[in-house]
Amino acid sequence: MNVVAWIVGLLLAGGFIMAGAAKVRGVEQMVASRDRLGISPNLFTAVGGLEILGAIGLIIGLTGDGNVELLGTLAAIGLIIVTAGAIVYHRRAADPPQEMMPAAVMLVLSILYVVLLAIR
């Protein structure tokens, strides 16, 4: 795996661990966002858990070759789905672009990570 894939993978993992932990812990700013977007508390907590699990999958994927690396790719694909869903919720809430930016950046980085693994 090349250095750029490692950097992108680590950035993604760190970002998703922080975001997921904030959702799971019920950080006030995240709860306000959840309520504004109209997401149920259980779904929001589940999304946070998926973000943490996806980040762990990315880290494990960075540590090896073959099937272990495949886990990282599958984790990134799962995170693409999660972040695409976040953008849909932001659009439905008519949020301004700056509110969608974190999800959009994580979506682009997740796609980049999958592409980098595919071309290695």
Secondary structure layout plus pairing:
Layout (H helix, E strand, L loop, with lengths): L2 H23 L2 H10 L3 H22 L4 H26 L4 H23 L1
Helix pairs in contact: 1-3, 1-5, 3-4, 4-5
Could you please describe the fold and organization of this structure?
This protein has 120 residues and is an all-alpha fold. It has one domain. Helix content is 87%, strand content 0%. Helix 1 (3-25) runs antiparallel to helix 3 (41-62). The radius of gyration is 14 Å and the shape is elongated. The model has no long low-confidence stretch (mean pLDDT 92).
Shape: elongated
Mean pLDDT: 92
Number of helices: 5
The low-confidence runs, each spanning 5 or more residues with pLDDT under 50, are: none
Q: Which percent range fits the helix content?
A: over 70%
Largest sheet: none
Oligomer: single chain
Q: Number of domains in the coordinates? A: 1
Succession of helices and strands: HHHHH
Number of strands: 0
Q: Over the alpha carbons, how many angstroms does the gyration radius reach?
A: 14 Å
How far apart lie the N and C ends? 6 Å
Structural class: mainly alpha
**In percent terms, what proportion of residues is strand?**
under 5%
